[in-house]
Amino acid sequence: xxxxxxxxxxxxxxxxxxxxxxxxxxxxxxxxxxxxxxxxxxxxxxxxxxxxxxxxxxxxxxxxxxxxxxxxxxxxxxxxxxxxxxxxxxxxxxxxxxxxxxxxxxxxxxxxxxxxxxxxxxxxxxxxxxxxxxxxxxxxxxxxxxxxxxxxxxxxxxxxxxxxxxxxxxxxxxxxxxxxxxxxxxxxxxxxxxxxxxxxxxxxxxxxxxxxxxxxxxxxxxxxxxxxxxxx
Length: 232
Known about the structure:
Blueprint: H1 5-18, H2 21-28, H3 33-43, H4 49-69, H5 71-84, H6 96-106, H7 108-120, H8 132-148, H9 150-155, H10 158-162, H11 171-183, H12 190-194, E1 202-207, E2 210-215, H13 216-227
Antiparallel strand pairs: 1-2
Helix pairs in contact: 1-3, 1-4, 2-4, 3-4, 4-5, 4-6, 5-6, 6-7, 6-8, 8-11, 11-13
């Protein structure tokens, strides 16, 4: 007997919360991508970091598969992300910038179409995200996309819109902004990054598909190290 959509959701949420990412991706590859979307949308806003980040990575792989078979269906997912960050949606959009960036990192066609939208979430004349918690996700998103499509971010002036986040009152936003600027090799950001207030706030960073504990100061130092070869 076929498993109901509710049953599939229960299975997937349990998998995301308990399994390692390699197992998650291998298991989900056996499902039609459209069957995975609702469970993954639920999971990206989970309070469990393991569940959330497994879901973010799985969303990227799933939507890339969907885009390969039906680009318009993938565009609908992108619009759903955008709607979830809209005040009119009635939600908050936790995990959405991260998941959207992962989808763009996993599929070049989507990146070509939607990088400008992701950048617009930094723009006060765009779809600006005001909540620091969402800004943390957005700064992570910029860093993730910088690993794969730095030229697209530069084309949409992400470096320009990232700079003000170095003045954020939230130390994690500042640190993640510095990280993204370092990854984008924004040399003109070096002076301002050096002036960042000393801060030893610890937090979890999802990098190379695993969670690590870092401090704000550590990310600032890493950004300056990345920029150092280009400074005169």
